[in-house]
Specification:
Elements (H helix, E strand, L loop, with lengths): L2 H21 L3 H7 L5 H8 L1 H19 L3 H19 L5 H28 L4 H26 L6 H17 L16 H4 L11 H30 L5 H5 L1 H42 L6 H9 L1 H19 L5 H30 L1 E3 L5 E3 L1 H22 L12 H4 L5
Antiparallel strand pairs: 1-2
Helix pairs in contact: 1-6, 1-7, 1-8, 2-3, 2-10, 3-15, 4-6, 4-15, 5-6, 5-8, 7-12, 10-15, 10-16, 12-13, 12-14, 12-16, 14-15
């Protein structure tokens, strides 16, 4: 691949994930501390991305495949998204805020698949080229967190405005990307084109069904981390929490390198179990750590995100790629994404907000404090239950999965 094209695609990935990292991490802190939304409202607001992940990729994918050039669709979605984010930053009431964030998520979530698709179209050897380009997306998320932490604006509307400005910049930049026209003529929307009946034959395999159910269940406690880690760290007094949370993304890059070794030595079952066990340990660290003598536990909980994400989700994507026939691999990955980051995290967004409210206490001064130890024990126990279920139900498979494919690498972002 020419160096100039590599740089263009790398910048595209950087901006794509800088946008998400700039507003999503600190959303709960802003909604809770400045707008005084309840835990349930914060959870539901964060869950708009799950609805976006569940609904919009199908419709937008149809438009990209049959109707509009990829780069123009990217420009339109990010342009609309930038305006919506800026408008969201001016809202004070929950109803309008939720509506704007939901519409924004319906615009943004499919752009991750669109950027991947555009990049693949420009590559002669995706296995060789994609990973080094996609890693700039993770770098964008990290830079966004470091910037927000450096500016010390976590409980304000400034992060979402920075994301809005970056989204408008991405819209303009998208128009400079290589022309990527649709590959097929229009056939219209059919549910069978999204989830062919053949894809559901995969569920006849006991291990595959256990894996899918465990993936759905583990996404419920996962939402506790995404929605309430930053509010938690800010409430207990950690300085530059957003910047320090980027250690989780840094660890993703580190532990990704170790995955092939674990595949060979322990197999897919125990690699997945290590990922789930790390979730249990992470939440226990959050529940017992503090900003004093037990500060290292908080850092450990953050750094464990690399194991939590890579060892379960990336390993899971490799497992799906191994189990599905070649003609159904893309469909199977989409189905898993719909079940986990769509339905699973949507359910988790409702549950985590209610749990946070249950352990909230109003102060005479008008503020709210939380019993975070009790809150974090809920996802810790839930993760342990899922781990036990998976351990009992999933039978070890002797044939190790292949090394991570570009599809798996494409998801490393959080």
């Amino acid at each position: 691949m020419p160096f100039s094209m590599r740089m263009r695609l790398s910048l595209m990935m950087f901006l794509e994930y800088f946008i998400w990292g700039a507003w999503y991490v600190t959303l709960g802190t802003w909604l809770g501390q400045q707008l005084h939304f309840s835990g349930e409202q914060i959870g539901v607001a964060a869950g708009t991305t799950a609805l976006g992940a569940a609904i919009s990729p199908f419709l937008v994918g149809l438009m990209a495949d049959e109707l509009f050039a990829n780069q123009r669709l990217l420009a339109a979605l990010h342009g609309i998204g930038g305006v919506l984010l800026w408008f969201a930053s001016t809202q004070k009431a929950f109803g309008p805020m939720y509506a704007v964030l939901l519409i924004y998520s319906l615009c943004y979530m499919p752009t991750m698949a669109l950027t991947n698709a555009l990049a693949f179209r420009q590559m002669k050897d995706p296995k060789q080229d994609f990973g080094s380009i996609r890693v700039l997306g993770t770098a964008g998320w990290i830079v966004a967190g470091l910037l927000i932490g450096f500016l010390r604006v976590e409980p304000t509307a400034i992060p979402i405005r920075i994301a809005g400005a970056a989204s408008l910049l991405m819209a303009i930049y998208s128009l400079t990307l290589p022309h990527t026209p649709p590959l097929r003529s229009a056939h219209g929307f059919k549910l069978s084109n999204i989830f062919p009946p053949e894809a559901f034959t995969l569920f006849k395999d006991r291990n595959f069904s256990i894996f899918v159910l465990a993936s759905f269940l583990i996404c419920i406690p996962l939402q506790f981390y995404y929605t309430f880690t930053n509010p938690f760290l800010n409430e207990i007094g950690m300085q530059n929490a957003a910047g320090k949370m980027t250690m989780g993304q840094m660890s993703e890059l580190l532990f990704m390198v170790t995955l092939p070794w674990f595949f060979r030595r322990v197999g897919v079952k125990y690699t997945l179990m290590l990922g789930m066990f790390a979730w249990v340990v992470r939440y226990i660290c959050f529940g017992t750590g503090n900003t004093g003598s037990l500060l290292p536990l908080l850092y450990l909980g953050i750094v464990l995100h690399g194991i939590c994400y890579d060892f379960f989700f990336v390993t899971g994507q490799v497992y799906v790629d191994q189990k599905a026939p070649p003609a159904l691999r893309a469909v199977a990955q989409g189905l898993i994404y719909f079940i986990t980051y769509g339905i699973g995290m949507f359910v988790g967004s409702w549950i985590c907000g209610g749990i946070v409210d249950r352990y909230a206490k109003s102060l005479v001064s008008g503020g709210v404090v939380h019993d975070w130890r009790s809150i974090w024990m809920v996802p810790a126990i839930a993760s342990a239950v899922v781990l036990l279920f998976f351990w009992v139900g999933f039978r070890r498979e002797e044939r190790p999965p292949q090394q991570p494919t570009p599809v798996a690498e494409a998801t490393v972002s959080r």
